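[Archive record]
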Amino acid sequence: MDWSADDLEGDDEPPSIDELETGLDQVDTMLGMLAAAATDQPSNPRQYLRLRRQLNDLLVRANIKSPFRWSTLDEWAAASKVKFPRNYAGRRTYVAQITDRVRDALQELLDEAQNGALTQELDDLGAVADDALDDPSGIRVELGVLPDLLRSDLRAAVGKAKNLVEATAKAVLAAHGQQAPQHSFDKSVNAALRTLNLDPNPTGNSPEAQAMRLLKELSSFVGTLRNDFGDGHGSVRAHTSVESRHARLTVRAAMAWCYFALETLQDQNIDD
């Protein structure tokens, strides 16, 4: 079948992250509608027309050829019966194949867009480190490798997220003339917080205490994910591969901790 996208009126702007995420959901809906129509199940002709228009507009803007060339569900149902007479399984398999191609292409674009946005966030964190520290080189090393790893090696990216927190903790301690505890991520993190006059294990229900508990949970989350999925340790069993969104979440959790620590240090330097 020729892949074509006819009668399209999409604009020239590339799809946003939100639009790509919506498009992935729409592809799943389209799969269900086409499979239902091809196997004589109830379907919604008006919803198909609306969905086809929205999806094809998106695919044109994403430079992806659309397989959704049937003007109506009845047209698709008739074509499917010619292509796969008395063969429901063949019709369902065919629909799954053409929607999988679209889903994979959209997911690739979404990953690229999300990684690009995250790259800018990493650059912004580097600028904060430059302002807060006399020597941000250790942090800069970790920031410099993360964008490529998020595209090529997600397990290594998770490991580097933990390194980023640890490098920031050590930089905070060095800024106060202190050395980090040896071979202990948690001790280094806690020592850095104490150096910033922050309690790493606060009690009470004040907003400050709750914020500090959240901060502690972020660093613990990064450390746990690195131990479970990162590339920093040998393991008896092969690790389950980490998904791109989980790797990005880990990196952003690390960045949140680093932002808070560096901005607190910067504020204290200004006060001094």
Summary: The first helix runs from residue 17 to 38. The domain at 133-271 is CATH 1.20.120.330 (Four Helix Bundle (Hemerythrin (Met), subunit A)).
